[in-house]
């Protein structure tokens, strides 16, 4: 437990340290924010670091092993529908709870003064990930080449970007990027690695990866479709 805490603490410091140092340098040299605001920033950074440490340790201790176990157990049930349903559910729930997605949906609601509902954006993004995660799991089971499904997904996203409302294009591509966060990405990857590790002729190293990258196309497509329906 102690070695894991030490390892994750180093990762947290590597993530938060440059930001903290950069803001401190700006405070000293350029911006000179009020002292109260600067102290509030330092306190918030400390709380964020503690939260990230606990999150990383929790994911490593419990969530990743369980994800790999579930992925390895699913093929034993002999039901493709069950595999797709589990992939859909995991993709939807983890994305809806992803901190980056929650922040984006809140900012969209505030920036648009409620014209674009934050909760709607949240669930549309989660739905996009869930659908593409299911297709990605089917790719592992059926052995479809990754380059073909990736090409198809991004071609559809680019086509919709050309046809969809211009104001939704930036949001769509931001939605795709925020889904590869600290919660959804490791869980979905663990599920895929567990699944590919027990299938004959599959490699956990080659077939277990790529799912998150493919699933991140889902929110792009989903948001663009939402924009076209609202137009």
Structure overview:
The protein has 231 residues and is mainly alpha-helical. Helix content is 82%, strand content 0%. The chain has 2 domains: 1-66; 79-230, no CATH class. It is globular. The relative contact order is 0.14. The mean pLDDT is 86.
Distance between the termini: 53 Å
Oligomeric description of these chains: single chain
The pLDDT mean sits at 86
Sheet with the most strands? none
Helix content: over 70%
Uncertain segments: none
Question: Topology, please?
Answer:
Blueprint: H1 2-31, H2 35-73, H3 80-96, H4 99-111, H5 118-142, H6 146-163, H7 169-178, H8 184-198, H9 204-207, H10 211-215, H11 217-230
Helix pairs in contact: 1-2, 2-8, 3-5, 3-8, 4-5, 4-7, 5-8, 5-11, 6-11, 7-11
Which labels suit this protein?
mainly alpha, 2 domains, 82% helix, globular
Give a concise summary.
This protein is mostly helical and 231 residues long.
């Amino acid at each position: 437990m102690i070695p894991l805490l030490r390892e994750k603490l180093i990762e947290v410091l590597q993530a938060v340290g440059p930001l903290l140092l950069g803001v401190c340098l700006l405070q000293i040299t350029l911006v000179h924010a009020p002292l109260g605001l600067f102290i509030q920033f330092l306190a918030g950074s400390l709380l964020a670091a503690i939260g990230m440490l606990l999150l990383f340790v929790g994911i490593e201790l419990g969530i990743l092993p369980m994800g790999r176990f579930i992925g390895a157990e699913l093929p034993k049930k002999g039901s493709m529908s069950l595999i797709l349903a589990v992939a859909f559910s995991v993709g939807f729930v983890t994305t809806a709870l992803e901190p980056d997605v929650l922040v984006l949906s809140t900012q969209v609601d505030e920036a648009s003064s409620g014209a674009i509902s934050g909760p709607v954006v949240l669930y549309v993004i989660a739905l996009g990930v869930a659908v593409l995660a299911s297709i990605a799991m089917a790719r592992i089971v059926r052995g479809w080449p990754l380059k073909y499904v990736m090409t198809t997904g991004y071609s559809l996203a680019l086509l919709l970007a050309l046809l969809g409302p211009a104001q939704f294009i930036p949001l769509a591509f931001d939605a795709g990027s925020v889904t590869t966060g600290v919660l959804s990405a490791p869980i979905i990857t663990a599920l895929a690695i567990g699944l590919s590790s027990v299938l004959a002729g599959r490699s956990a190293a080659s077939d277990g990866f790529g799912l998150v990258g493919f699933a991140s196309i889902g929110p792009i497509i989903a948001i663009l479709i939402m924009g076209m329906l609202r137009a």
